[in-house]
């Protein structure tokens, strides 16, 4: 398969670029070219830095990966794009935020998966958010 024409790969590349630019808000003009990732509630406290995603196979199976967080293990289907190459993407596993009072639904883990973009048939983008330690 010619992955340069794979739309999933292209979408993951765009998400990765947006996330990398999110922390460089001063470098991004306030124009139509500004990425969707931006300030949280128009404050300078946090900048959205993650567009969480879920991925599906051709059989409509959800990609899931294990993680360990603070000594607790679990499985998550929510990921953050960390790097995209021509054929693969490195994704960080995001865990549900154990702080139920937080407005941010996910926390970063040290768990990663690498997926072959040609094996992904669908992607769902979730609401942009801030994830600490990414």
What does this structure look like?
The chain is mainly β and 134 residues long. The protein has one domain (3-125). It has one helix spanning 7-22, and strands at residues 53-56, 65-69, 72-76, 78-84, 88-96, 106-116, 122-125. The strands form three sheets. The protein has a three-stranded antiparallel β-sheet. A hairpin with a 3-residue loop joins strand 4 and strand 5. The longest helix is centred in the first third of the chain and has 16 residues, at 7-22. The termini are far apart.
Jot down its keywords.
134 residues; mainly beta; two-stranded antiparallel sheet; 3-stranded antiparallel β-sheet; 34% strand
Strand order of the largest sheet: 4-5-6
Distance between the termini: 32 Å
Fraction of residues in helix: 10-25%
Rg, alpha carbons = 15 Å
The overall strand count is 7
Judged by helices, strands and strand pairing, the structural class is mainly beta
Describe the secondary structure blueprint for this structure.
Layout (H helix, E strand, L loop, with lengths): L6 H16 L30 E4 L8 E5 L2 E5 L1 E7 L3 E9 L9 E11 L5 E4 L9
Antiparallel strand pairs: 1-7, 2-3, 4-5, 5-6
């Amino acid at each position: 398969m010619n992955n340069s024409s794979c739309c999933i790969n292209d979408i993951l590349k765009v998400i990765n670029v947006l996330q990398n630019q999110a922390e460089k808000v001063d470098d991004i003009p306030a124009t139509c070219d500004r990425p969707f990732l931006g300030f949280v509630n128009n404050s300078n406290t946090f900048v959205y830095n993650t567009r969480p995603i879920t991925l599906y196979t051709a059989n409509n199976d959800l990609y899931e990966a294990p993680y360990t967080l603070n000594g607790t293990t679990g499985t998550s289907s929510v990921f953050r794009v960390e790097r995209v190459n021509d054929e693969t993407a490195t994704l960080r596993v995001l865990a549900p935020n154990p702080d139920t009072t937080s407005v941010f639904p996910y926390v970063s883990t040290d768990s990663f998966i690498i997926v072959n973009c040609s094996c992904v048939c669908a992607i769902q983008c979730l609401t942009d958010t801030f994830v600490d330690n990414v």
